[in-house]
Write a structure and sequence with these properties.
- This protein is α/β, with parallel strands linked by helices.
- It has seven helices and 14 strands.
- The chain folds into two domains: 188 residues, Formyl transferase, N-terminal domain (Rossmann fold); 81 residues, Methionyl-tRNA Fmet Formyltransferase, Chain A, domain 2 (Roll).
- The protein is elongated, with a radius of gyration of 22 Å.
- The N and C termini lie far apart (55 Å).
Amino acid sequence: MKVGVLASGNLGFQMLSKILPIHDVKFVLTDRNSQVIMTLCKANEIPYFTGNPRNGRGHAFVESIEVDVIVSINYLYMIEKDIIHHSNWLTFNVHGSLLPKYRGRTPHVWAIINNEKVTGITAHIIDEGCDTGAIISQIEVPIGLDETGAEILSKFELKYFDIILDVFKKISSGNTELVKQDEQRATYFGKRTPKDGRINWNWQKERIYNWVRAQAFPYPGAYTYVNNQQLIIDKVEECSHGYRWDTKNGTVLAVNPYIVVKTANGALQIEKSRLKVIVKTGDILI
């Protein structure tokens, strides 16, 4: 099968490495930061394009290269119909959620933040919307009570190739059954940046717990400020420390052996953080 691959990051690199031995990869589209993908393409003499493919740039690169299937894996850019319709048979994406829930960017992070117990991977047709195309295949992935965003992504890495293989097998056998997404069940979440990680201590402790673990190291991290210094937090746990109901949320209740902070419905102790910041009992985290 002649395949075009759209891929970014380590996940894209891992999947491209596994596709190469079983199919004839004719081209790769990637981003300028994915050096490992570019190096792999050079080593295997695969034509590759870097940067934003929109406004005809990507299509101009691939238009003379015939492929049966195009697969998108962790690719940073949305593509336009010129590339979508370039494949002879099918153009599909592998998305890290159980569509139609969690369309958009970093869906596994949002799933943890929202206290989901299950996430998953969906292979779907690429259309001109954002993760709106018909579903080809899905795999469920459980979310452990203490798992981080990075740990869920590691679980995805073990499953992504299974779903890619499943789609290739369905295409080869002519048994590609498409399931239209239910728009009434669809949810969408936007791109996250490091500055979006700020903790609101007025939230309930359960949301703060999920907020922190979803973004824990090696991700940029959830953060707060104390005495004008940024404190990046990687792990919190509920604790039984007492407090007055009218104490301001974000107040430091204790500092030894852990920093303990009041929230809207209980106390949390900070078990892992980055940088050494001096914190005293009575300080306010904001």
